[in-house]
Write a structure and sequence with these properties.
Strand 10 and strand 11 form a beta hairpin. The longest helix is centred in the N-terminal third of the chain and has 21 residues. The protein has four helices and 24 strands. The strands form six sheets. Strands 15, 16, 18, 19, 20, 21, 22 and 24 form an eight-stranded antiparallel sheet that branches. 11% of the residues lie in helices and 42% in strands. The protein is mainly beta and 397 residues long. It has three domains: 82 residues, Immunoglobulins (Immunoglobulin-like), CATH 2.60.40.10; 89 residues, Immunoglobulin-like, CATH 2.60.40.10; 175 residues, Sandwich (Jelly Rolls).
């Protein structure tokens, strides 16, 4: 009898749990029967560069969740901004012009109900991409064009250069991404034949400026013949060690691995410097320096590779024989940047690729023609000597 009662009790408990398991749980709003909220009042607008700040008064309603602003940054391109219940303003941005735009404002409550719309009109000030575009100064440069810009708002923009390819078809030649407040850079790789260049600016919102066109002949440049390079030994210069002599800098071996093919200075206090002759007086346009990099996981951005250095030029028939600096002009100050930002000893493929391309440095158009080069190493990565695999020069003899 007792066993029968136990079986009946278990069956009853099972039915209860079964019913509970089958019951559907419905989650409802905390404010299920709320009315739609009242609209905003007291709106005012302060226009900014490519944007506007709209202030307002919220209705006295503790069910309000946020304020929504719906608008188009240009025809057919919608955008939305939101501001929480704890703020009395919302920023609308992304405009690429100074035209008048309508912004529709809604109060949204916790029941996801929207108020009646309140429409305001904004008229943004000059957006950053237009300011950058209007600041562009383009001049002929060695093998291409030099572009200077001002970006006072430090906005994320892209300066795009277009020119014709070998078939005469216009296409993108360079895209320069920047958020710097100003800058100067060069687009190269062209001969001295007259050609048309175009320049425009775009931003992260998909806005584009008009294209500015100009036509000119890039300045002539050539790759300097390394067979004319010669070592110069001045009294204050650092010497070499391990039999890895200075002419290894122009032997054409980029890897600079364990078998040699790179220049290894003596261990001396920094700064240290060395000097060589290009064999011809030339107005330099650019210089590339390669680190010792084979195997890359052991050497690039590490060991004796230069981290901060300067390159000087001398235009006299021969520099001061006592090794002093009176005749030298700084051409380049350069600090090596590791793409990955990882600590020494850890490298990525991006680091390896960047090291293989070399440290590429432009020489300003205001620099004099030179024949002699002096490299001053201010800092390496770890040690008191310097390794450099190769150096190449371009310019106008």
């Amino acid at each position: 009898m007792m066993q029968f009662k136990n079986r009946m009790l278990c069956a009853a408990i099972g039915l209860v749990f079964s019913a509970m398991a089958c019951k559907k749980t419905v989650h409802s709003s905390l404010f299920p029967d709320g009315d739609k909220p009242a609209p905003l009042t007291g709106t005012s607008v302060v226009n900014g560069p490519g944007s506007a700040t709209i202030t307002y008064s919220l209705p006295g309603d503790n069910s309000i969740l946020y304020v929504k602003a719906a608008y188009e940054i240009r025809k057919g391109v919608p955008r939305e901004a939101r501001s929480s219940y704890y703020s009395n303003s919302v920023v609308v941005d992304g405009f690429g012009d100074t035209l008048e735009h309508e912004v529709k404002l809604y109060v949204v409550n916790r029941s996801d109900l929207s108020s009646d719309v309140v429409t305001v009109k904004v008229k943004p000030l000059t957006p950053p991409l237009l300011s950058v575009y209007r600041s562009l100064k383009v001049t002929p440069d060695f093998g291409g064009a030099n572009i200077q810009f001002v970006n006072a708002m430090k906005a994320d923009v892209v300066i795009v250069t277009i020119t014709a390819d070998s078939t005469g078809k216009l296409g993108t030649a360079n895209s320069r991404y920047t958020a710097a407040d100003s800058g100067s850079y060069s687009v190269r790789g062209y001969d001295s034949t007259k050609r048309a260049f175009g320049f425009y600016v775009k931003d992260t919102y998909g806005n584009y400026t008009d294209t500015m066109y100009t036509t000119f002949s890039p300045l002539y440049e050539k790759f300097l013949d390394k067979s004319k390079f010669q070592e110069v030994d001045l009294p204050t210069d650092v010497g070499y060690d391990w039999g890895l002599v200075m002419p290894n800098l122009w032997d054409g071996i980029i890897k600079g691995g364990l078998i040699g093919g790179f220049f290894h200075t003596q261990a001396k206090p920094f700064p240290m410097w060395f000097t060589f002759d290009l064999g011809v007086k030339v107005r330099l346009s650019r210089i590339t320096l390669w680190q010792r990099q084979d195997p890359p996981e052991d050497w690039i951005y590490n060991q004796n590779n230069p981290k901060v250095f300067e390159i000087y030029g001398c235009s006299d028939a021969f520099p001061n024989a006592d090794g002093s600096w009176g005749d030298w002009t700084m051409l380049v100050h350069h600090e090596v940047t590791k793409p990955s930002g990882l600590p020494m000893g850890s490298v990525t493929q991006a680091d390896i690729d960047a090291a293989a391309e070399g440290e590429q440095m432009a020489v300003g158009l205001d620099k004099p023609a030179v024949r002699y080069i002096r490299v001053k190493v201010l800092q390496t990565y770890t040690n008191s000597a310097t390794n450099i695999a190769e150096m190449s020069f371009w310019g106008q003899p």
